[in-house]
Design a protein that fits this description.
Layout lengths: L16 E7 L3 E3 L4 E9 L3 E6 L4 E2 L3 E5 L4 E7 L2 E14 L3 E5 L3 E9 L9 E9 L3 E6 L19 E4 L14 E4 L1
Length: 181
Amino acid sequence: TVATTNTNKAAPENKDLFIEVEANTDNIHVQQQILYSIRFYRAVNINGASMSEPSISGGEVVIEKLGNDNSYETRRNNRRYVVIERNYALFPQQSGDITIEPISLDAQVAVAARGMFDPFGQNSTTRRLKSDSITVKVEPIPANMRNQAWLPASDLQLTEKWSQQPAEFIVGEPITRTLTL
């Protein structure tokens, strides 16, 4: 059995499985970071699942997976779900509209079926889920920043550390200065 579910941030009522996708912005500048999250909700047992990786149309984008998948429980519409969350950082390299294509997930849902050929009482049926796509408008580098160093960031810190505190310089002795950006 193959079923298709489309959802984006909605809490579908009485669904055993669904996917949410979310981008933290819908309008950024070239090379600015987009945080993209995929959440797979399940209220039933599964024997396995495979999920596609994010793909982009409309422009070149650097995609980096952020850490390991997170797993936690939550309640939606008075129903308990196990959630698997995967996060990515996306960095568009040119201006224009980009589309984060739908994520697809195939899950083998466990179905109780005791019989003489299945002593463990577990069969499975395949369910196919598909998220919505997300479109993000990517603005060009601002005109006053062209031909200059461009580093879009919401928080940028530069710190220094010396191998000796306080820093005393003695001719002929090495000292280390570490700069962290």
